[in-house]
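Give me the 3D structure for DUF3352 domain-containing protein.
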Amino acid sequence: MLPTPQLLDRPRTWAGRSSRVLRAHPLVTIAVGVVVVALVIFLARAWVTRGGDLDEALRLAPSEATRVSFTDWAGIRESVGADLDASSTPAEVHEMIDEAYTKDLTSTSVLPDASGLLQKHFGWSPATLDWELYTQSTEGALMLAHLEDMDADQLVDQLTSMGFTAPKDDPADGGVWDGTLVPFSSFTDSGIDSTISPQLTYIAFLPERDLIVASDGRRYLGDQIENLGEGDLHEPMTQAADQLGDPLSAFVYDGDFTCSEIGLGGASAADQDQADGLVDAAGDINPIAGFAMAAEPSGDVRVAMTFENDDQARTNADTRAKLAVGPAPGQGGTFDERFELGKVAAEDAVVTMQLQPKDGTAVLSDLANGPLLFATC
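Predicted structure for DUF3352 domain-containing protein (377 residues):
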C-alpha cells in the first residue's frame, strides 16, 4: 500500500497554560485598533493590486495559447548572484546561464542557446531582460520579452547592422523585422555562439510597452501585435497560474496539452500498465483542465491543477498525493527519490502541491517534459 502523506496542516491546540493579563488604557487600545485596521486595509489593497511579473506577462498571452512558459530573468540573475548589464561580456552571460541551468531555472526559455549572440549583437539578452514569455498554440508561437526603458532606436540599429530586413511600417514601433536572410554563423566569435532560435526570425519592438515581440511566423507575429493583450487565456489555465505567486520560471498548460503531451500516452505498454495499477490503488482521478508548475525563489517547486469542480479537486488532492510519493512510470525510479512532498490542498476547483527537490534534482524540467503521472487523464 502506498503511504498517504499529510494533506492539510492541523491546527495546534494549547492547553494548561496560564498567563498574566495586563490591561491597557482604553484610549491606547482604541488608537492601536485604528492603526491595525488601517494597516490591514492597506495590505489587503496592496495584495489585490500588486500583480507579479507572471500576472503581467499572462495578460499579454494570446487567448488561443495552449502552452505557456515564463522566465523571470531579473529574478534569476538575483538568485544566482549575477550582476550583469548591457556592457557585460557574452562569457559572463553564459556563466549566469550555466548557473541558472544547474538550479533548473532555464527550461522555460527559448533564449539560453543564443544568449551570447543576443548580448553582443542584438542589444538585449537574458543579462538585461526583465522577463520572457513563450506561448504556443495550433496557430503559432510567440515570444514576448520585457526590457525596461528600452531604446528602440538603438535596437533598430543593431538589427540593421546584422542584416535584418527593415519593415515598411515604423521600424521602431510595431513594424516586423525579417531575419530570414541573416547569416548568423558569420557573427561567430571566440566564445560567442551562433545558434539562434527560430522564434527570433521575425522581431518587432513596442517601446511604449517596453516589449520585444518575436515569432517564427511573420503573419502570426503581425496579427498578435495588433491584438496584443485583448484576449484571455483559457480560464482553467489562469486559475492554476493564480496559485503560483511570483515564480522564477513556470509552465502553464491547458487540459488537452497536459493530457496529450505530458501524460502517459507516449509511454511504453509496460509503463502504462504499471500506471493503471497505481491509479487503481490510489483511488478516483479526473481529467486536469488546467496545469501549472513553477520554480520558486525558495528552491521549492509548486504544482497547481484545475479540475471541473470543487468535489473533483478534493478527490484528486487525496489520490494524486498518493501517486506523488510512489513509482514514476515513464520516467524511472520513484517520485519520492526526486522530491519530498509538502502540503497538498484543495481550494475551490484547484489542487496545489508543494514539492521540495532532493539533492539538486531538476524537478521542474523533469516533470514538465515527459510522462507525468500527475497528468493522467
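Residues 235-375 form one domain. Let me know if you want a second pass.
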